[in-house]
């Protein structure tokens, strides 16, 4: 997996949308960030991510309510101990049954950039 698909991302203001793109582009290992129909695609340089990059992606996806199950593909022998920590806020979203976003965004629409 060399991309992360962020379907139907909801932004609360133009600044919020800009912050998403600036944050995503600043993550080491993220090569490109672009829109595709109703998704934002984060194109990655590798299928292996550093600790820092994976932590930033966890934070980004959690903050913007993007389904996080796709991050499970980035588990490695090196990160499995901290990544699969059942006490972590992301665990049920990445490895559990919570396929839906972590926040209720009903009524808010993406500006589609």
Your description of this structure?
This protein has 113 residues and is an alpha+beta fold. The chain has one domain. It has helices spanning 14-26, 51-63, 80-83, 91-94; strands at 3-7, 30-36, 39-44. It has a 3-stranded antiparallel beta sheet. Mean pLDDT is 87; it is low at 99-113.
What's the quick description here?
This protein has helices at residues 14-26, 51-63, 80-83, 91-94, and strands spanning 3-7, 30-36, 39-44. The radius of gyration is 14 Å and the shape is globular. Helices cover 30% and strands 16% of the residues.
Judging from the principal axes of the Cα atoms, what is the shape? globular
- Would you identify the regions where 5 or more consecutive residues have pLDDT less than 50? 99-113
Structural class: alpha+beta
Estimated radius of gyration: 14 Å
Give the integer mean of the pLDDT values.
Answer: 87
Helix amount: 25-40%
Strand line-up of the largest beta sheet: 1-3-2
Quote the beta fraction. Answer: 15-25%
Biggest beta-sheet profile: 3 strands, antiparallel
Per DSSP E runs of 2 or more residues, the count of β-strands stands at 3
Question: What sequence of helices (H) and strands (E) makes up the elements?
Answer: EHEEHHH
How many individual helices? 4
Termini separation: 23 Å
Question: Number of domains in the coordinates?
Answer: 1
């Amino acid at each position: 997996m060399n991309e992360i698909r962020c379907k139907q991302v909801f932004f609360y203001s133009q600044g919020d949308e800009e912050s998403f793109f600036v944050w995503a582009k600043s993550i080491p290992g993220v090569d490109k960030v672009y829109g595709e129909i109703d998704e934002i695609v984060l194109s990655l340089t590798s299928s292996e991510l550093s600790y820092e990059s994976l932590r930033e992606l966890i934070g980004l996806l959690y903050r913007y309510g993007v389904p996080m199950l796709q991050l499970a593909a980035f588990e490695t022998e090196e990160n499995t101990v901290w990544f699969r920590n059942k006490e972590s806020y992301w665990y049920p979203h990445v490895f559990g049954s919570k396929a839906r976003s972590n926040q209720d965004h009903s009524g808010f629409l993406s500006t589609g950039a």
